[in-house]
Amino acid sequence: MPQIDVNGTRLYYEDTGQDSTGGGSTGETIVFSHGLLWDAELFAPQLAHLKDRYRVIAYDHRGQGRSADDTVSSISMETVYQDAVALIEKLAIGPVHFAGLSMGGFVAMRLGARRPDLTRSLILMETSADPEPAENVPKYRKLNFVARWLGLGLVAAKVMPIMFSQDFLTDPARAAERAHWRGKLVGNRRSIWRAVNGVIDRAGVHDELGRIRCPVLVMVGDQDVATVPAKAERIHAAIPQSRLVRIAKAGHSSSVEQPVAVNAALDEFLKDL
């Protein structure tokens, strides 16, 4: 289980590709940064699809997945951003194509705006440049309180429709997949509340988007209720060199809900670069 000590924590990461020490067949590296409550497995379809052409790295955020825990009450997005910077620098892999979904997108936008030397391109999936909408905060804090003290099993029925589209949740052929992801949700460590607080408490970065100079792909599922398509459109409008792709029949976890469509969008974007 590869781990790396960076920024005062220990991160789990997966490093695959044609040459996991110097890039894939293109000599380029893609780093994947997952969404809240999940881990690097969120990008398993993309890692398998891209590893023959690129060096592909996916890592778990501090306090989540297989990375080290934390002791603060709220793991800030600034800290998680600094973790990503330290990971790229310590592995000496920059500049990279940096792909972030939801929480990973919060990291990606900060990285693109503040460290252009480390970013070849950005892939922003199911994310927002704004703070958490005020109307969501009381609901999410309540769910987080229950999860912290009573366990995630009691909130899974509320969280699954936030994380996945209705198409994914109601398709009989995908029952095994739903069970798998529900199991991962419920299996989160109790201390996940620290990471949830960081997402709820985050500051917006919309005013920084104009500083992003690298090519940007913005993707959003047309059934995403966590970061609705209007959020993606707002990001796209603020970054002139961006392109926007809507993923049909996908919610907040498009990478596993519609992997073929997501992979096709990645191929088209990367090919043009």
List keywords for this structure.
273 residues; alpha/beta; Rossmann fold; eight-stranded mixed beta sheet; globular
Provide the helix percentage: 25-40%
Radius of gyration, in Å, reads 17 Å
In CATH, the architecture is 3-Layer(aba) Sandwich
What is the CATH level 1 assignment? Alpha Beta
Number of strands: 8
Note the overall shape. globular
Structural class estimated from helices and strands: alpha/beta
The whole-number mean of residue pLDDT values reads 96
- Under CATH, the topology can be stated as Rossmann fold
Number of helices: 11
Question: What is the string of SSEs from the N terminus onward?
Answer: EEEHEHEHEHHHHHEHEHH
Q: Looking at this structure, what is the CATH superfamily? A: Alpha/Beta hydrolase fold, catalytic domain
